[in-house]
Specification:
Strand 1 and strand 2 form a beta hairpin. The chain is mainly alpha-helical. The protein has four helices and two strands, in the order ααααββ. The chain has one domain.
C-alpha cells in the first residue's frame, strides 16, 4: 500500500511539473491558457489586500512560477492521517507576518481551527 501511495504522489508531481513548464513557456502566447491562468490568479488574489495593478505584471515572472512550484511540491508531499499528528503548515497572520500553525498551540489545551464565516 505504501508503494502505491508513493507512485501516485510521484505521478501527481510529474503531471504538476509538466503543466507548470508548459504554462511558463507557452502560457503568455496561447490566449485560452493565458485567460485560464489570469482567472485562477484573480480568484486567489481577490482574497488579499492587493489590487490587480499590484500583481498583474508579475503573472509569468520567475518569482511567481517559483512560488507556485514550491506550493505545488508542498501539496504533493503533505500528508495527514486520522488520529495522527497535525501537519505544521505556514500561516500568515493579520499583520502579514509568517508563522507555523502549531505555534498557536498552548500546553494542555487543544488547538481548534474554525474555517467558518464570521458574518
Amino acid at each position: 500500500m505504501y508503494y502505491v501511495r508513493v507512485a501516485a504522489r510521484f505521478l501527481h508531481l510529474m503531471m504538476f511539473i509538466i503543466v507548470m513548464v508548459l504554462m511558463s513557456l507557452f502560457g503568455r502566447h496561447i490566449p485560452p491558457l493565458r485567460r485560464f491562468a489570469y482567472q485562477k490568479v484573480k480568484e486567489i488574489m481577490s482574497e488579499t489586500y492587493l489590487e490587480e495593478r499590484d500583481w498583474k505584471d508579475t503573472l509569468y515572472s520567475y518569482s511567481q512560477i517559483q512560488a507556485i512550484l514550491k506550493d505545488g511540491l508542498y501539496e504533493v508531499f503533505r500528508e495527514a492521517e486520522l488520529y495522527g499528528d497535525a501537519p505544521d503548515g505556514d500561516v500568515i497572520r493579520q499583520d502579514f507576518s509568517k508563522t507555523r500553525l502549531l505555534g498557536f498551540q498552548k500546553k494542555d489545551r487543544p488547538l481548534v481551527l474554525n474555517f467558518g464565516s464570521c458574518t
